[in-house]
Every structure is written in C-alpha cells, then in structure tokens.
Amino acid sequence: MSENHTGTAAPTLLERDAGLLWHPYANLDAGALYCVNSAAGSQLELAGPGGSHRVIDGMSSWWSAVHGYNHPTLNAAAHAQIEDYSHVMFGGLTHAPAVELAERLRAAAPPGLEHVFLADSGSVSIEVALKTAVQYQGARRRAGRHRFLALRGGYHGDTLGAMGVCDPVDGMHSAFPGLVAGHLFASRPPRARFEPDAGNAEGGLWAYDTEALEAWEGQVRRQVAETTDTLAGIVVEPVLQGAGGMYVYPPQVLRILRAIADEEDLVFILDEIATGFGRTGKYFAGEWAGVVPDLMCVGKALTGGYVTLAALLVGQKVARVIAASDTDTILHGPTFMGNPLACRIAAASMDLLAIPDAGGAPAWKTAVTALQTGLHTGLQPAMELACVSDVRVLGGIGVIALDRPVDVTALTHAAVRAGAWVRPFRNLVYLMPPYVAEPEELSRLCSAVTGAIAEVHA
User: Fold this and answer.
1) 442 φ, ψ to 5°?
2) Does residue 324 contact residue 299 with C-beta atoms inside 8 Å?
3) Out of 25, 29, 326, 328, which one is annotated catalytic?
4) Is 225 exposed, middle or buried (0-12, 13-18, 19+ CB in 10 A)?
5) DSSP state of 69
6) What local confidence, expressed as pLDDT, does residue 413 receive?
7) Which residues of 311-334 are buried (b: 16+ CB within 10 A; e: fewer)?
8) Buried-state track 155-180, b at ≥16 Cβ within 10 A, e below 16
9) How do residues 15-40 score in pLDDT, each as one tens digit?
10) Catalytic annotation on 403?
C-alpha cells in the first residue's frame, strides 16, 4: 500500500480492484494478478507481487494486438478520427471510415464475399451469422431449418446464440440448460500437425491420419442425412479450434463440410475471429483448404487490438436470397454499428498488414513466417520436460501441452518473474505473440515460458 494524505496506507490498485471488478472466468474475490502501468511494442510493464515487471506479451491481448502497443500509425488514425467525430449512428447514414474498411475487407476476402455487415464484437458477428443463416432458410420457405452443425471442441463466443454452437460438454453452455438452443455436434476431426518447411510452396506440410478422416466424414454425413430438414447451416473455426483447446485439424475437413453444405443447401459459416489476418500462416485460415464460405466472421486483430469491432462478410448466394425475401434485410442493428473511430483504426491496421517488405511479400506474411520459425525453434526445449506431452506450432501460434492441468496462478507468476505474460488454460500454455515481436524477444518469451513450466510442474 502507499500512504495517503491522512497518513494511513492507501489501498493499491489491485486491492481496489478485488471484489469490485469481476474479471473474465475468475472468482469475484480473486481480482487481478497484476495491473498494467504501460504498454509499448511487444512489451507490458506490470505492477504486482515482487514490484514492477517488464514482460513480453505472449497473448497479443487475447490475440488482437498484432501490431503491438502504442503503434504510431494506429495512434494517428485514432487521433485523426476523434478530431472529426468519434461516433455517429449507422442507420440511414454512412461515412468514409466504414466504406473504406468494407472495401479493404472485400478486397482481402475470398472471392464472392461481396458484402459487409459491421458488428460490435466477435460474438455479436456470430449471432448475426446464425440469424442470417436462419433468415436464408426461411426465405427459401424452410421454416423448420433453424439448427446448426458444429464441431465438438469448438468455441464461438459467450453470447447466447454463439454459446449454443460451442462444445456442448466441455464448453461453458452446459451450465445453462434450457437457455441455449440445442444443435447438432460432430465429433472432433482427427488431429493434424503442420511441419514447417521453407522449401515447400505452402511453407510446410500437413500430416494426419487419412483413414481416420474418411471414417469421420462418413460419420458426419450420416448425422446430416438424419437431420437435414432441421439444419440451417454449418459453423466451424477453420483449421484451428482456439479456446476449445488450441486443436489443429486437417484443412481437408473444410472441403468436406463445404461439399456437404452445397449438397444440402446449408449455409457454410467460417469463424475467422481468432484465425484471421494471418495468424495461421494464411491471411484467412480457410485459404488452407481453398474454400469460400457463405458467411465469414472476423474480429480480434481487425483493429490491431485498439477497440472492439467485428464484421460479417456475406456471400452472394445468401445476400441475393435475403434481399429478395419479404423481410429483405438482416434483422440486426447494434447501436455502435459502423463506429467511425473503430473503422478508421481497422482500415489503418489492415494497411499495416499489407505493407510489402523488401522482397515484395506483405508485412503480415513476413512477420508470421518469422514467428513460426522462432516458435518452432524456441519451444523445442520444452519437449525435454517430463510434464510436457506435446509441442505444436502453426503460423504465429505455439502450444505446449502438459500431461496435467496447469496451475494457472503459480505458472503466471513464474512466467512474469522470467519476463513473459501468458494466460494458460486447461493443460495448455500457449503463445500468440504480436507480429512485431523481435527475434530476441521471441527467444526470451519461449525461454521464459519453458522455464516457468519447469519451475512449477517439472
């Protein structure tokens, strides 16, 4: 505690927080572990147990701050928009930041995703996607089609509709019986591993059990055949299931699901909220399979972590049917839809990703390739720990799987003392560093995390 003007000890920020602010997925009285004093580049300055700590952020603030913190280009975009106007309603009005962002999204998206619906957050974009798929089926005079096929292990957000298509057993919606809709869940596809290889045109090779994949496809096709009349669409996180366990599966799965959607006239939805904007090694993870969804949700890295914003990209098939229907509109309209401040920052963030390097490659590709190389090298020593069951890397994502649940608090403190900020869950310690992390920072980050695991769990 510090001393106030009365001479008594004033409570610290952490003490004032405890019991006042309810943090995500945390006990009310637990409060926070550290407070942030400053942030710049890939580093945070934290205050808490042991005093001040300068740490490398291994989380990109839950996968969003891809350009790091306090970036001059994004700062300038924010200041410039605030000087004009920070918000105006989007009903009946438009503005340059929204139009310019939508143009960038359409240009970056797979061909055919021609239309953009702006939303408040990733979860809200999923809500809008689900509603849009149901509207599509309703416009096709199939009122009974209101359920979705999703994958076990999936995670799509914490709002009610999104929660309904999350894993029904290991996900959080099992705590809300009767409140969320009942959908159809396919088992997880077989696990895949991506092996980086600079000499390969794709930057590496995918390895998986082809027989297991064939068996999985047969099972899914049987499930769909039994329930087609009730299904509106299919919703999945492409290639990587994030909060459901950082689980990597074969790109071929997306081709299978795209084919099923076409055969049964289901709306195929890709949740690219965590995987979009280069994180997996492709600008959008669906590109690993070469598939184009009917609807695609993006968020998180969209604004470089500066302010909340998401978008739903809509394909022509769905757009034409809804536009010609009795309602002729997507029935959703958030108050802060198309927020000019968020849109201008997002457009600037997308421009940063596109800047070419000396060889002409876009900045995001160069950065993520370097992250993949650094993570692959830096995390290998973790395999020598007896408590580690697996180490896997895909693009700018590194995962260390333990053979036991992580002691989250103890490991977080150990990592901070070693110079890294991480947020483990279940049996996983994972890294999604900012794209701007320097090689030396990445090496320190990997060493700190490996050392923290050894200290707490070895």
Assistant:
1) -65, -40
2) no
3) 25
4) exposed
5) B
6) 98
7) bbbbbebbbebbeeeeeeebebeb
8) bbbbeebbbbbbbbeebebeeeeeeb
9) 999 999 999 988 888 889 999 999 99
10) no
Any binding-site annotation on 63? Answer: no
**List of residues 6+ apart from 24 with CB closer than 8 A:** none
Which of 34, 155, 208, 283 does the annotation list as catalytic? 155
Measure the N-to-C terminal CA separation of the chain; round to a whole number of Å: 34
Q: Answer yes or no: are the C-beta atoms of 267 and 322 closer than 8 Å.
A: no
Domains of the chain: 39-70+360-457 (3.90.1150.10), 75-354 (3.40.640.10)
Residue 293 labelled as part of a binding site: no
Please state the pTM of the whole predicted model: 0.96
Taking the C-alpha atoms of residue 206 and residue 200, their distance in angstroms, rounded to an integer, is: 11
Is 262 known to sit in a ligand binding site?
no
Residue that the structure tokens 């000019």 belong to: 340
Instruction: Find, among 198, 148, 111, the residue nearest to 373 by Cα.
Output: 198
Is residue 300 marked as binding? yes
> Active site includes 300?
yes
Catalytic residue chosen out of the listed positions 300, 306, 365, 430 = 300
Q: Write down the catalytic residue from 57, 120, 271, 294.
A: 271
- Position 202, amino acid: E
Known catalytic residue: 208?
no
C-beta atoms surrounding 33 within 10 Å: 18
Cα–Cα dist 381/424, whole Å: 18
Confidence band, pLDDT 50/70/90 cuts, at residue 6:
low
Euclidean distance between CA atoms 375 and 334, whole angstroms: 39
pLDDT tens, position by position, 254-307: 999 999 999 999 999 999 999 999 999 999 999 999 999 999 999 999 999 999
Burial 422-457 (b: 16+ CB within 10 A, else e): bbbeebbbbbbbbbbbeeebbebbbbbbbbbbbebb
305 is in an annotated binding site: no
Helix (H) or strand (E) holding 9: strand 9-10
3 state SS of 223: helix
Q: Average pLDDT for residues 34-51, to the nearest whole number?
A: 96
d(CA 135, CA 79): 39
| 3-state SS class at 116 | strand
Distance CA 60, CA 66 (A): 6
- Establish whether 17 is a catalytic residue: no
The reply, when asked if residue 378 is annotated as ligand binding, is no
CA dihedral 16, 120, 149, 272 (to 10 degrees): -90
122 is in an annotated binding site: yes
